[in-house]
Specification:
CATH superfamily: Alpha/Beta hydrolase fold, catalytic domain
CATH architecture: 3-Layer(aba) Sandwich
Helix content: 25-40%
Structural class: alpha/beta
Strand content: 15-25%
Distance between the termini: 27 Å
Shape: globular
Amino acid sequence: MRILARRCFVAVLAALAGRSPASAEELVKFASAAPRTQTAQQRDGGRKPDIQGYLTRPKGDGPFPAVALLHSCLGLPADRRAIADRFASWGYVALFVDDFATRGLKETCAVDFSAATADAFGALLYLSKLSYVDARRIGAIGYSQGADTALTIASSRFAAAFAVPDNLRFKAAAAFYPPCENQAGARLTIPTAILIGAADEVTPAADCEKLAKAQPGGSSELKLIVYPGAAHLFDDPSFAEAKSLLGMRVKYDPSAAERSQSDLREFLAGKLAQ
């Protein structure tokens, strides 16, 4: 009965999320969010270089919920378009933020890439102004280093630091294999899903379990999902065979990847459906 009830629930959520086919991918540019401490004149006069992104939307007028997709320290994934099309098929506008192209970067795996948070809030502001996006239903989804940014967003440590309207916030966040140790002691203030492999040697699941246990009242805002046997980048088919990349052991796990897509879809439908 529980299995049947869960399947029915997922079916309802899928209907709420929509099944619209995707439109063509569009290259867009937007400004990284400026510090709130700057005056309007300073922000306009000291405009940062435009950030590049790839926008995919469902067909139709909307307004649709949207997601800002935040890549890993390796940059945009090879299956970027397939990921965006999947979100569009679920009924979401998807903006893949490219932190690297306009900065001339190839990877940031050995550094603390702090600019990613400002870029994410810049994406939020950009999405909120699109006529076919419901600004009240925008989520952030990050992968590895991008997942670190997603958890930073969820903790609201920096939400007030950027020049975005006071009523504009990410409504939910999802983090694939994040370095949860970076958020030790943080309180998550928006619904958040963490999807991580039990065999991840790069960002240990144990750190995410500690983060979940540290949340006030248990983990009411945090849904932690651990996939047995899965390693880092378990959802990236570029790593079908295990590799050591920049000191990281990565391995695609098709079973965990499929389950994570289902888990993410259910989570987003429940948090961004209305």
